[in-house]
Amino acid sequence: MKTRKRPWARALTEIIWFSWLPVAAFVLIWIFSGMSTSFYLPSAQVVLEQTWQVWFVEGGIAENLVPSLIRLVAGFALAVALGVGFGVLLGLVRPLESAVRPLTDAARTIPGAALLPIAIMFFGLGDAMKIAMIAFISMWPILLNTIEGVRSIDPTLRSVMATFRITRRDRFQHVFLPQAMPQVFAGARIGLAISIAVMVVVEMFGTPGGIGYFIRHAQQTFRVVDMWTGLVILGIFGYLLNILFRILERRVLHWYHAMIAQAQGASA
Q1: How distant, in Å, are the alpha carbons of 9, 34, 58, 82, 263 from that of 234?
Q2: CB of 192 within 8 A of CB of 134?
Q3: Which residues 6+ apart lie within 8 Å of 264 measured at CB?
Q4: CA distance linking residue 179 with residue 201, whole number of Å
Q5: How confident is the model at residue 39 (pLDDT cuts 50, 70, 90)?
Q6: Comparing C-alpha atoms, which of 123, 127, 117 is closest to residue 212?
Q7: What is the pLDDT of residues 138-151, one digit of tens each?
Q8: Please, are residues 131 and 139 in contact by the beta-carbon 8 Å criterion?
Q9: Is 165 left (phi over 0), alpha (psi -120 to 50) or beta?
Q10: Which residues lie below 8 Å from residue 242, measured CB to CB, with a gap of 6+?
Q11: Rounded-to-integer distance, Cα 220 and Cα 122, Å
C-alpha cells in the first residue's frame, strides 16, 4: 500500500523538479560567459547589472515592456475569441467545416513573415497591425483544437440530448463548451507561445516602443549588452506569462484535473 506524500513534501518535490534545470543552466552561463572575451558575448554579471539599470532604473519597463504586454493581451484575446467562436461553429456544422477547409488549410500554412508586408499596407505600422498579426497567426491552434474538442462528444450523449429535447443554448453552455475546454486550453497554450514570438517580430518592423523594437534598435546601434538585456527581459516575461496561464488553466479546469487525478489513483 502506497503512502501519500504530505502537501508540503509534494510542493517541495515540484519546486525541485521545476527549478533544477534553470538553476543549472544559469550557473553554467555565469561561469562560461565570465570566461568570454568576445564583444558579442558579454559576461552574465554585466548583462544583469545593465538589465537592472536599463529596465528598472531608467524606466525601460514602462517604455517598452508595458506596450508589448498590451499588444500581446489584445491580440491573444482576439485570437481566443475568434478561435473558440469559429471552432465551435465549424465543429458543430460539419458541412460548413468541409466547405471552408481548403481556405483554412491554405491560410494557416502561410508563414507569418510573408503576411507582414500585406498587414503593413492595410493597417500601417501602428498597434492595429501588430494586434492583427498576433491574433491571426496565433488563432489557428486554438481553432483546430476547439473543432476537435467539440467533435469528441460521445455520440450516445448527443442522442440523449436529442431525446430529451435539450435546447441548443443549453447544449452549448453545459455540454459542448465544457467538453471542449481541455483541448481549447491546449490550443491556447500553443497560441500563447506563438503570440509572444509574433509580437517580437512585428515590433521589430513597427513604430518605436516594445521589446522587439528595443532589441532590434540595440542590435543596429551595436549596443550589444542592451540587446542581451532585452532577451533576458523577454525570457522572464514569457516565463511569467506561462505561469499565469497555468494558474488560470488549473482554476478553470479544476474539475478535469480532479477527474484525471482520481482516474490515475484508481488505476494505481
Answers
A1: 32, 22, 17, 26, 38
A2: no
A3: none
A4: 35
A5: confident
A6: 127
A7: 999 999 999 988 88
A8: no
A9: left
A10: 189, 192, 193
A11: 27
Cα-Cα-Cα-Cα torsion 80, 85, 87, 91, nearest 10 degrees, comes to 150
DSSP letter (8 states) at residue 100: H
Q: Environment class of residue 140 by beta-carbon count within 10 Å: exposed (0-12), middle (13-18) or buried (19+)? A: buried
Side chain identity, residue 50: Q
177, 88 Cβ separation under 8 angstroms: yes
What tens digit of pLDDT does each residue of 186-234 get?
999 999 999 999 999 999 887 788 999 999 999 999 999 999 999 999 9
Rounded Cα distance, 174 and 161, in Å: 11
pTM: 0.84
Q: CA of 161: how far to CAs of 87, 91, 217, in Å? A: 21, 17, 58
Closest Cα to residue 46, out of 33, 65, 61?
33
Q: Does domain 59-210 have CATH number 3.40.50.300?
A: no
Straight-line distance from the first to the last Cα atom of the chain, in angstroms, rounded to the nearest whole number: 10
